[in-house]
C-alpha cells in the first residue's frame, strides 16, 4: 500500500514536471520568435541606414568639385547652361 502511494506521488511529480517543461518550452519559443522578428526589423533598418550612409559619403566626396556646384545650381537655383533646352513633362 505504501509502495503504491509512493508510485502515485512519483507519477504526479512526473506529470507536473512534464507540464512545467512544456509550458516553459512554449513560452521560450514565443520569446525566440519575437526576438527573431525584432532582429529582422533591425537588420532591415541597418541596411537602409547603410545605404543612406553610402549615399552621404558619395555626396561628401563630391563637395567642393565643379560637378557638385553645377548640380546644386541646377537643382536648387534652376540654372541651365547656355544653349541648353529644358523639356517639361506635361504628363506629370
TrEMBL record:
Pfam families: DivIC. This is Septum formation initiator family protein.
Amino acid at each position: 500500500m505504501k509502495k503504491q502511494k509512493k508510485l502515485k506521488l512519483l507519477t504526479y511529480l512526473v506529470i507536473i514536471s512534464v507540464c512545467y517543461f512544456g509550458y516553459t518550452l512554449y513560452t521560450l519559443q514565443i520569446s525566440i520568435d519575437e526576438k527573431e522578428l525584432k532582429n529582422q526589423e533591425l537588420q532591415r533598418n541597418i541596411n537602409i541606414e547603410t545605404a543612406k550612409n553610402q549615399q552621404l559619403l558619395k555626396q561628401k566626396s563630391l563637395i567642393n568639385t565643379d560637378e557638385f556646384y553645377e548640380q546644386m545650381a541646377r537643382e536648387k537655383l534652376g540654372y541651365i547652361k547656355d544653349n541648353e533646352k529644358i523639356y517639361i513633362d506635361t504628363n506629370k
